[in-house]
Amino acid sequence: MKVSDRWWSERLGQELTVSRWGTWGVPVLLFPTAGGDAEEVERGGLIDAVRPLLDSGRAKVYSCDSTAGQALARREGSTAYRMALFNAYHQAVAEEVLPAIASDCGGPQPLVAAGASIGAFNAVALLCRYPHLVDAALGMSGTYAVDAMIGGPLTDDLYFSSPLHFLPGLDGDALEQLRRRMVVLASGTGAWEDISESWEMARVLGSKGVPNRVDDWGPGYAHDWPTWREMLPLYLEDLLP
């Protein structure tokens, strides 16, 4: 059964919805694609795909609106605004959504972040920015060069939101924590896919000693929901503690 909550986020300057499926188990934060809301993952069949994990109590799946992705898809405001919104979105997830998940789970728990397309970017970015809050990330058919999609000059907001940009300069305790995490990057090479983005993300992660791998699913898998419905339960089986 789905449960949803909605609140006003001062960081985003708008309302934010979070939905949950399952009643107990390890929390999985599943990000929507660029234009998606908190319920898109259900409409896309991902909740049904992981139903055995929900019914067995191995996982509780959460999802929240793709606020920054929606602005990107709609080309809202200036390029600087759209870049700033990614920074605000990650902060809202870390400081509002994750504490709400912890409260719902009765306290902090190991957490897996996952998503497809722009959702993959958000999942990997969340782990890289907040390795003390996220234990593993799964990026499916990831689109990681978000600055190229937005266009315009790169701002500090997007620089510090994008692992491709901020990871090369990361050091200290945050990097040491990140080196104890795992990132899985899965992509097909069929229609609308660009696995080169996953390989570039892997290169940057690897250059900093962050455990990761790229899984190439081949030309039979397109950038679409059937691919992600097959990928998600397979990888969660491995990533869930």
Description:
The chain is α/β, with parallel strands linked by helices. The protein has one domain (2-239): Rossmann fold (3-Layer(aba) Sandwich). It contains 12 helices and 8 strands. The chain has helices at residues 40-43, 46-49, 51-55, 67-74, 79-104, 118-129, 146-150, 156-159, 163-166, 172-178, 196-207, 225-239; strands spanning 2-9, 14-21, 26-31, 59-64, 112-116, 136-140, 182-187, 212-216. Helix 4 runs antiparallel to helix 5 (79-104). The longest helix is centred in the middle third of the chain and has 26 residues, at 79-104. It is globular and about 45 Å long. It starts with a strand and ends with a helix.
Annotated CATH topology: Rossmann fold
Task: Please describe the biggest sheet, giving its number of strands, its sense, and whether it closes into a barrel.
Answer: 8 strands, mixed
> What is the CATH homology-level superfamily?
Alpha/Beta hydrolase fold, catalytic domain
CATH architecture: 3-Layer(aba) Sandwich
Strand and helix order = EEEHHHEHHEHEHHHHEHEH
